[in-house]
Amino acid sequence: MSADRSHVDCGAGSRIDPSADVGYAAHVEGSESPPPTRIGDGARIRAGTIVYAGVEIGDGFATGHDALVREETTVGDDVLVGTKTVVDGATEIGDHVSLQTGVYVPRETEIGSNVFVGPGAVLTNDPYPIRADDGLRGPTIAEGASVGANATVLPGVRIGENAFVAAGAVVCEDVPPDTLAVGAPARERELPDRLAGPNQLA
């Protein structure tokens, strides 16, 4: 028996593989019907991907295989969510964003426009795992920033506009705009000329 997709609004020219599940309705206590799922024009959603109910996505959205976008997430135009990438809900993502293969984005995260997040990067949101109920605070990745492959960004950290986090860095403190963060723990360095300026994702 097929699932009810009456709450899903998918725009013109969108292609969704048969094994993808768009509008997946997680059980919400006291809710009789799932919240709407809205996806703009020209989406390409590949096999194994799950997009929950209660997600709003702009035009030109694309996924790799087995990606996950959970509830209460807002996504802008021309966003890529790569293979096996997880957006764990309650997240805001701007326009022209590339989340490469295997990225983890936790709840309560903000990602600006023209942001690149490299393969295997992990963003975190729990300052004191299993030790204190201090609330979840995901990172903020500001407009034009880049996060390199396998980098780790700790809860509540802000990556400034056009900043660059090097591959493998562990970012424990805010990274100012137009700077480079390198190492574990990451240390601020001057941004080389070849990395300066906004991303060219638009």
Automatic annotation (TrEMBL):
Cross-referenced SUPFAM superfamilies: Trimeric LpxA-like enzymes
Keyword Nucleus: no
Pfam family, one: Hexapep
Annotated region (Disordered), positions in chain: 183-202
Highest taxon listed in the record's lineage: Archaea
UniProt cross-references to InterPro entries, sorted A to Z: Hexapep (IPR001451), Hexapep_transf_CS (IPR018357), Trans_hexapeptide_repeat (IPR050179), Trimer_LpxA-like_sf (IPR011004)
GO process annotations (BP): diaminopimelate biosynthetic process; lysine biosynthetic process
PROSITE patterns in the record: HEXAPEP_TRANSFERASES
Record flagged with keyword Glycoprotein: no
GO molecular function list: transferase activity
Keyword annotations of the record: Amino-acid biosynthesis, Diaminopimelate biosynthesis, Lysine biosynthesis, Transferase
PANTHER family: 2,3,4,5-TETRAHYDROPYRIDINE-2,6-DICARBOXYLATE N-ACETYLTRANSFERASE, ACETYLTRANSFERASE
Protein name per Swiss-Prot or TrEMBL: DapH/DapD/GlmU-related protein
Organism: Saliphagus infecundisoli
